[in-house]
Design goal:
This protein is of the alpha+beta class and 149 residues long. The longest helix is centred in the first third of the chain and has 18 residues. It has four helices and six strands. The protein is globular, with a radius of gyration of 16 Å.
């Protein structure tokens, strides 16, 4: 019985990891850039997301140093370059806050997005990185959907 339970847990865990497997931001989600103990992670899959036309929502939020922020930024930039970004929206206000929304190339009828927000808090930064899989075709539609809910 215990072996069956462990197998089921392993399958559930690998299903979430496989979603963004192959992306550079997976380094962040796996704890390679920031230790998992310092991150707040949210994973949502299934019916809770149907109103938002999503099949997966995964985010991490953490406080980081400037050097760690640069590593996270580099991972996002690698994904933008490697996965044929179709659209990105960025906002930089005086270097103290930034928001970036990136739409990656579609996987069939599934559209993948990376959203990153960083805000300075003293000498540290509060960073949130979100990975989304959705049937929504554009960032503009995705933003509209969030604003209407």
């Amino acid at each position: 019985m215990r072996q069956l339970l462990m197998t089921l847990l392993l399958l559930l865990t690998t299903g979430h990891v496989a979603a963004q497997q192959g992306l550079a931001i997976n380094e962040l989600f796996s704890g390679s850039i920031i230790p998992k103990e310092r991150m707040v992670e949210t994973r949502v899959r299934g019916r809770m997301l149907t109103d938002y036309k999503m099949s997966l929502f995964r985010s991490v939020k953490c406080k980081v140093s400037k050097e760690e922020l640069e590593k996270i930024n580099a991972a996002v930039q690698r994904d933008m370059a490697s996965y044929k970004t179709t659209e990105s929206i960025g906002d930089d206000r005086h270097g103290r806050s930034s928001t970036l929304m990136v739409q990656l190339a579609a996987k069939g009828n599934t559209y993948c997005y990376i959203c990153q927000k960083a805000e300075a808090e003293g000498k540290q930064w509060v960073v949130t990185v979100i990975y989304i899989e959705s049937t929504v075709k554009t960032i503009a539609e995705l933003k509209k959907l969030f604003n209407n809910k």
